[in-house]
Design a protein that fits this description.
Bound molecules: flavin-adenine dinucleotide, 1,4-dihydronicotinamide adenine dinucleotide
Largest sheet: 7 strands, mixed
Distance between the termini: 71 Å
Number of strands: 22
């Protein structure tokens, strides 16, 4: 006899676990099925984000930033620290502790909200009497669950590079890059995307020589050009990453004690020999084991589950959210889709605006943006105005010793409505929230310019950029 629920969520990442909690809050009997196991073979909720993504990467970024600051920045404050050392084992222990704590937190939230939690791989079997049948397999055992609604939140996997085997010993994906227990003397990274730059920064700050090989001719092509240019300067000159754009990877040989990457740059054959190689060339949606074909769940040519604007699939009462569907592969996008689907099942009319989803790259300085880039506005023929302001003279930034960066506000030339905000600088990840809220409320740059911002604070640079958009900057 199978257990019966109103809602079954397949996948316990930030999309799935949040959808399950919200569904339960709305009064549905809910189960969440998740297959993730940690390196000790134990179930660990939270998906890619918590186990091998957002959270551990930010933990290592902070540890490495602290190490770097002690060595390079503290002297300016009159602090000298002799014999600075980093204990990589302790750093990994801290990171793993954060994962364990947060995973236990999700399990607690499931209990609190009465979400049933089943560990194993969920497979859609079929539909009978208005109920979907799901088979969950784990360790050779199977159990059946039935549910009126199914929310698929099975996430994504690293995109493989043809002909290259990730062994997570020498050739690493995100999981391997987050678990290195020694600082490699020479680290290669394929892909100057978000993972490549974040993980490259971590290991560079800890002492590795890092070379990043990127296929695209332009650096961070999705980022506002002005900000991307500034980021390139800081990441190469200050962080010390060696970044080659426009490379064509030839062969990768995982030898006895080194990895050799043969590639072409500006028509010339090149070779990079490294101790470890991270491959981070994007991610692909994960529908393995779901039996999508068997039940007729529509998948597009790139492997994404096809959904409408409300995340409904082609099958009745089957929904899909997060990395496994179109849109940015971001944890907060997955979670907000999860909430929206649960509320739609409850008959509500939630709405998610993709144009106001913020992006953050947690390099030093951080890069964050929301809305349109200047190159997008140009391409779309939109008449816009802009205001920029730097952190260099901001009192708080000076106090923090973090004066690099710029805020750029783009607004409609006619209405002054904010169309995009682009930030590179300290705490850009936090500063962008004001821009998101402003855009959600269709604010004008004048609205933000007339709001009182605390002094001294980094947010004054956002304020100043809005004043500059109206040609009345006070400090520019
Ligand atoms: P996932 O988090 O991938 O979760 C899917 C879950 O479903 C997994 O636990 C998986 O085991 C399980 N599963 C899969 N198939 C089945 C099945 N058939 N049955 C049962 N369970 C199944 N995003 C940000 O917004 N900010 C960041 O800072 C950030 N940093 C990142 C850093 C790295 C290194 C990586 C790799 C990603 C990062 N991301 C970040 C992206 C973010 O992790 C994803 O966008 C997010 O995890 C997607 O959530 P999801 O719920 O769709 O899927
Ligand atoms: P990405 O899409 O950000 O970057 C991949 C890069 O690899 C691109 O620049 C691409 O041009 C390049 N590339 C592709 N094929 C290549 C090849 N054959 N040779 C050389 N370069 C090649 O993907 P990434 O970094 O793997 O991250 C995956 C996703 O995870 C991101 O798109 C993002 O959605 C999410 N993520 C988000 C983070 C955040 O929000 N801070 C942090 C890390 C990941």
């Amino acid at each position: 006899m199978s257990q019966s629920f109103d809602v079954a969520v397949i996948g316990g990442g930030p999309g799935g676990y949040v959808a399950a909690i919200r569904a339960a809050q709305l009064g549905f009997s809910t189960v969440c099925v998740d297959a993730f196991k940690n390196p000790q073979g134990k179930p660990s909720l939270g998906g890619t984000c918590l186990n091998v993504g957002c959270i551990p990467s930010k933990a290592l970024l902070q540890s490495s930033e602290n190490y770097h600051a002690v060595q390079h920045d503290f002297a300016d404050h009159g602090i000298t620290v002799a014999n600075t050392q980093i204990d990589i084992g302790k750093m990994l222990e801290r990171k793993n502790g954060i994962i364990t704590k947060n995973a236990a937190g999700i399990a607690f939230l499931f209990k609190k909200n009465k979400v049933a939690n089943v560990h194993g791989l969920g497979k859609l079997v079929g539909r009978q009497n208005e109920k979907w049948l799901i088979e969950v397999s784990e360790g050779g055992e199977t159990q059946q669950i039935e549910a009126t609604h199914v929310i698929v939140a099975t996430g994504s996997n690293p995109r493989p590079l043809p002909g290259v085997e990730v062994d997570n010993v020498r050739v690493l994906d995100n999981a391997g890059a987050l678990a290195l227990d020694q600082i490699p003397a020479r680290l290669g990274v394929i892909g100057a995307g978000v993972i490549g730059l974040e993980m490259g920064s971590v290991w560079k700050r800890l002492g590795a020589e890092v070379t990043v090989l990127e296929a695209m001719p332009t650096f961070l092509a999705a980022v506002d050009e002005q900000i991307a240019k500034e980021a390139h300067k800081y990441l190469t000159k200050d962080t010390g990453l060696v970044i080659h754009n426009g490379v064509k990877i030839g062969s990768i040989e995982n030898g006895a004690d080194a990895v050799t990457v043969k590639y072409e740059l500006n028509g010339e054959a090149q070779e990079l020999v490294v101790d470890k190689l991270i491959v981070a060339i994007g991610r692909v949606p994960n529908t393995a084991g779901l039996n999508a074909e068997g039940v007729g769940l529509q998948i597009d040519e790139r492997g994404f589950i096809v959904v409408d604007d409300h995340c409904h699939t082609n099958l009745p009462n089957v929904w899909a959210i997060g990395d496994v569907v179109r849109g940015p592969m971001l944890a907060h996008k997955a979670s907000d889709e999860g909430v929206a689907v649960a509320e739609r099942i409850a008959g509500q009319k939630p709405h998610l605006d993709f144009n106001t989803i913020p992006w953050v790259i947690y390099t030093h300085p951080e890069i964050a943006w929301v809305g349109k880039t200047e190159q997008q506005l140009k391409a779309e023929g939109v008449d816009y105005k802009k205001g920029t302001s730097g952190f260099a003279a901001n009192g708080r930034a000076l106090g923090l010793g973090m004066t690099q960066g710029t805020v750029k506000v783009l607004a409609c030339a006619k209405t002054d409505r904010i169309l995009g905000v682009h930030i590179i600088g300290p705490m850009a990840s936090e500063l962008v929230a004001e821009a998101v809220a402003a855009m959600e409320f269709s604010a004008s740059s004048e609205d933000l310019a007339r709001i009182v911002h605390a002094h001294p604070s980094l947010s004054e640079v956002v304020h100043e950029a809005c004043l500059a958009a109206d040609k009345r900057a006070l400090h520019g």
